[in-house]
């Protein structure tokens, strides 16, 4: 069974490193935004990535749409570039490693001056292929991404805020005290999440449900449950989930993220006998099979997204332990998903 690649850190170490790492990432990205003029002036950006990177793109697209900018995210590896990128004034490829072959292949379909890259690895093929680049500072990351993913969420938010005209000081201020917020969030949800993981240890599948920016949480969370816990997991949009998808509930765990229709959904699932974890800032009391991970409601949506993400990261780690899965072992290795050389 393949082990995690050389150069990665253990999953638990990646989670523990996040508070301090995210403080560094805020400062580093802010400094780079000051000199990345093309990124700041785009009006028809298209974001592209694959895996967890694609999941992260739900957040900036939602932020930009709310400000009237027609941003889009597309799945690298499954697109017709000529149609998707035709009206884009900037294509932003996102890859924590900077080596995802599908994202590299997508980015080189546009002229170099219209390419931007957001990576963790400062020296990487994706960064080298783009005319404009922002990096997280090559922060050590786990194979099932922890620091790299939450850092990417922060960087994407900062880029989106810059595109909507916010000033540098305001962009940085949104993340003031992020280390302390993460540590406080971890303490607030640890017992609840660990108890939920034990109760759901024999689950055969998982549904993670959210809407809007929180889809970055559920899509990345579903990937984590597959990678780390080997649980077939699916991320679904809230309203679409209500239109039939939830009928297959049975020996399944459920995670709902949000303060709207997700609340009634969480109650309904738990009352029907399905272990459910609700991530919400609304008043909701856990009882029976309903577990509640409170998320501070006064924070901005991007900050809440990061805090919600660390909840599902903890869930993945706790559930793997409850199921007896070695979190650092992976079943399959693919030689064609990472590149060592720049393309085009």
What does the model show?
The protein starts with 10 loop residues before the first helix and ends in a 21-residue tail after the last helix. The protein has 344 residues and is an alpha/beta fold. The strands form two sheets. A five-stranded parallel beta sheet has the order 2-1-3-4-5, with helices on both faces. Strands 7-6-8-9-10 form a five-stranded parallel beta sheet, with helices on both faces. It has helices spanning 11-33, 37-41, 52-56, 58-66, 81-84, 101-107, 125-129, 147-163, 168-173, 178-199, 215-229, 238-242, 261-271, 301-323; strands spanning 45-49, 72-75, 90-95, 115-119, 132-135, 205-210, 233-237, 252-257, 276-280, 290-294. The chain is globular and about 55 Å long. Strand 8 (252-257), helix 13 (261-271) and strand 9 form a beta-alpha-beta unit. Helix 10 (178-199) runs parallel beside helix 14.
Keywords:
five-stranded parallel beta sheet; alpha/beta; single chain; 344 residues
What's the short story on this structure?
This protein is of the alpha/beta class.
End-to-end distance:
34 Å
What is the tally of beta strands? 10
Structural class based on helices, strands and sheet pairing: alpha/beta
Shape: globular
- Share of residues in strands: 5-15%
* Helical run tally: 14
Low-confidence runs of at least 5 consecutive residues: none
Identify the strand order in the major beta sheet. Answer: 2-1-3-4-5
Secondary-structure element sequence? HHEHHEHEHEHEHHHEHEHEHEEH
